[in-house]
Amino acid sequence: MEGNWLSPPERAAWVRLIGMLELLPAALDHQLRRDAGMTHFEYSVLAILSEVPEQTLRMTELAGFTNSTLPRLSNVVKRLVDRGLVERFAVPGDRRATNVRLTAAGHEKMVSSAPGHVDAVREYVFDALTPEQVDQLSEIAAGVLERLDPTGTRRPPIDPAPAS
Amino acid sequence: MEGNWLSPPERAAWVRLIGMLELLPAALDHQLRRDAGMTHFEYSVLAILSEVPEQTLRMTELAGFTNSTLPRLSNVVKRLVDRGLVERFAVPGDRRATNVRLTAAGHEKMVSSAPGHVDAVREYVFDALTPEQVDQLSEIAAGVLERLDPTGTRRPPIDPAPAS
DNA sequence: TAGAGTTAGTTCAAGCGACAACTTTCGCCG
DNA sequence: CGGCGAAAGTTGTCGCTTGAACTAACTCTA
């Protein structure tokens, strides 16, 4: 109830941002589903695990890194376990907690699907941007994220993982 | 299979963009659901109709403007009709086609919910950006959209509608 | 050490989107 | 003008996300 409408430049930016917000996730999901048989969210889970020490993370940490919720992650991890891509095991000190670790098969999956996904990311996003725009995008997204998640609980995971 | 990994700056931008792609839509949806009792997609439909001549659009056009699909739109319009916010009627010349028009109640709904939504958009996005960044974002999103939808079928609708 | 409150994670029901069929209508070509 | 393919929408099924309980385990305090 404070400010009024958006200014014309803001309006233009907003319309385009909304379009990107709807089409880009759909495009990424489609690529991964077609080429790797998994969703973008599942890919993110594997990518993050592949980059972390011991390829192991607790459920709550993993939920934070993926900008997700515990119920959602719980379901997804269940599916990944069924497919043998990750495994669950108890945390020594705390019997409430659960660790999730990438399996060898999960690592293989990342190695095989990451390059194709990175190509898609290039094609849809970075091929359209100059180096200056990449930095601008970085700053802009950082500013918005600061508003959306001031606590910073959700740390920079990574998407197109090296999966070395 | 062409380029290799992302460069460090690209990687940083990517991680942040992914975070924004997941958190921003969720935040907008939450605000609208809480304050207006509808989803962001439903809001978009009403907003676009409110800005178009006669507050009327054909299903296919509306699907394009909302970056959506016909089946999805069909379901949403059905719900909006049940709530009395829009109405469907035949297109004179073509008996296959269907027009959708905003009702008086739908207009009222926009008038009452748009200001709050615009405030949210400001809070999450534009308050975090300088005027220069707004223009940068506009250019960046335009470039990405060009890659995602080269045909440009999906025209600039509008999100935070005046609902005059 | 018993009890209250909190945290970690799972499960269940409800709702929405995606995809594929299906119906109806139109345009076109012989 | 008969028929064939394309276009416009709708409907049905399946899978996933969400939000609300619910269980189990930990911590702090009296």
UniProtKB/TrEMBL annotation, chains A, B:
This is MarR family transcriptional regulator. Residues 1-146 form the HTH marR-type domain. Coiled coil: none annotated. SMART domains: HTH_MARR. InterPro entries: HTH_MarR-typ, MarR/SlyA-like, WH-like_DNA-bd_sf, WH_DNA-bd_sf. It comes from Nocardioides luteus. Pfam families: MarR.
